[in-house]
Write a structure and sequence with these properties.
By secondary structure, this protein is α/β, with parallel strands linked by helices. It has nine helices and ten strands. It has a domain of 183 residues: 3-Layer(aba) Sandwich (Rossmann fold), CATH 3.40.50.300. Bound molecules: adenosine-5'-triphosphate (ATP) and magnesium ion.
Length: 264
Amino acid sequence: MVRQTTQEVLRLENVTKSFGNVQALNGVSLAVGDGEVVALLGDNGAGKSTLIKAISGLHGVDSGDIYIGGKKAEIRSARDAMNLGIETIHQDSSLAVDLSIARNLFLGREPVRASFLGPLAPLDLAQLKRQASELLKRVGIKKNLDADAPIRALSGGERQSIAISRAMHFFAKIIILDEPTNNLGVEETHGVLNFIREVRDAGHTVIYITHNIHHVFQVADRIVIMRQGTIVADIDAADTDILEVEAIITGADRRELAAEVRRK
Ligand SMILES: Nc1ncnc2c1ncn2[C@@H]1O[C@H](COP(=O)(O)OP(=O)(O)OP(=O)(O)O)[C@@H](O)[C@H]1O
Ligand SMILES: [Mg+2]
């Protein structure tokens, strides 16, 4: 049974995807409502990133349907997804490493001077740099990064923060974060969690993949757990706890796990 939500923004129906012999998604159905923060959990290889890549146009699905705002969507590229209001920060960062930080923040949506010139309008580089610096501050990057520096020159954590700043700026309807706090320092991690709360308070929808269950309980309204390409639990965060979630992720019995913890 797919859980019903109010004001559905995204729905997946029976989505499957395999890579050779690996059935990465095995009939996934899920509905996500307006303004929800959904944590998508599961062990390594459970199919989380594959699911997100299907929604964000990085690869197609073998069968099943995706609906955005109640309408069936054909998502064939990252651009299709962006046009449908879906912004994704992938686990393996989706930045153009040879372009500057500032250019990566806007990727084809840069502020221009004389916008009536259409694609020929010159970039407003001063504004680009100014907006880029403001965005970096908002995600908690204190270090003075030069917006003109190429992405190549940044650490993994700094790159992740750039991608997050981008989703923040364009304020997409659905923001998907695939392990956004990997490689991040304490300050930047707080920035990401605050960002998730800010976006939710503004009525947008977030799908958040992480292995950090403590973070999940800090921000998620709802917890969806995958195991071997299927959804095995879909619960309100308020109705569960860390122990139960861990047990479902691993497939262990809750009582056994509780007993194990008590013995420690
Ligand atoms: N491009 C690919 N080619 C072949 N197999 C793939 C590909 N992408 C994913 N897989 C396989 O599909 C399965 C699901 O992978 P996926 O990346 O979705 O897992 P995940 O839940 O995101 O795991 P993690 O928590 O480690 O990121 C795995 O067995 C993985 O090896
Ligand atoms: Mg993954």
